[in-house]
């Protein structure tokens, strides 16, 4: 695993935050550069296709410096490595959000909520660390809950050890019966079943469909 992959593992990079941080658009890329180690090295960080990559230039010889990528190296290279990791970590802490969730569908839903409404997850219960609440910033009302639950809560035939990510969203109560006939939709888990529904986040329901239900839920909250 690369240094960059390790630092940004389970984090969603927000391009708008990168530009605010100091990244400059260069074609389809966003590029950030900064000197380190008393100006002897130049760090160039690039963001493209949802990935961060980086290069260190030894300014004394105007050439790429790669020794810092050798994990077992000690001394000078290890110091450069730590400084580089520090730069990446600062970028991550200012320009990315922790995705928290196990499944791609849950991560996509959380990313959509953040990008659409600038709302991040709130983890309110120590007993249920995977339960994330999303609420409007104006009235503080919930419009979504993402959680990892035992699959047999939705499908009695599932093994007790199987788990799945879900999202609870507010719905039109007059459409509940019709909605629950669709694949991937269930009576709301641990919420009012007249005004909420559960969508399973295992790929059964398309991301675009989930996004529209989240929009509708936000409006109803």
How is this fold's topology laid out?
Blueprint: H1 3-8, E1 11-13, H2 15-21, E2 24-26, E3 29-36, E4 41-48, E5 51-58, E6 63-64, H3 76-95, E7 96-98, H4 104-117, E8 132-135, E9 142-150, E10 163-170, H5 176-179, E11 185-187, E12 196-200, H6 207-220
Antiparallel strand pairs: 1-7, 2-3, 3-4, 4-5, 5-6, 8-9, 9-10, 10-12, 11-12
Describe the structure.
With about 220 residues, this protein is of the alpha+beta class. Helix content is about 30%, strand content about 30%. The chain has helices spanning about 5-10, 15-20, 75-95, 105-115, 175-180, 205-220; strands at about 10-15, 25, 30-35, 40-50, 50-60, 65, 95-100, 130-135, 140-150, 165-170, 185, 195-200. Helix 4 (about 105-115) packs across helix 6. The relative contact order is 0.11.
Descriptive key words:
single chain, 221 residues, Aspartate Aminotransferase, domain 1, five-stranded antiparallel beta sheet, 12 strands, elongated
Short summary of the structure?
The chain has 221 residues and is α+β, with helices and mostly antiparallel strands. The chain has helices at 3-8, 15-21, 76-95, 104-117, 176-179, 207-220; strands at 11-13, 24-26, 29-36, 41-48, 51-58, 63-64, 96-98, 132-135, 142-150, 163-170, 185-187, 196-200.
Query: Total helix count?
Result: 6
CATH topology of the largest domain: Aspartate Aminotransferase, domain 1
Topology order in helix (H) and strand (E) letters: HEHEEEEEHEHEEEHEEH
Give the CATH class of the largest domain: Alpha Beta
What integer value in Å does the Rg equal?
Answer: 22 Å
Count structural domains: 2
Structural class of the secondary structure composition? alpha+beta
- CATH-defined architecture of the largest domain: Alpha-Beta Complex
pLDDT below 50 for ≥5 consecutive residues: which ranges? none
Number of strands: 12
Range of helix content: 25-40%
* Percentage of residues in DSSP E strands: 25-35%
Query: What is the mean predicted local confidence, pLDDT?
Result: 92
Instruction: For the record, give the distance between the C-alpha atoms at the N and C termini, rounded to a whole number.
Output: 42 Å
Q: Name the shape in a single word.
A: elongated
Strand order of the largest sheet: 2-3-4-5-6
Largest beta-sheet details:
5 strands, antiparallel
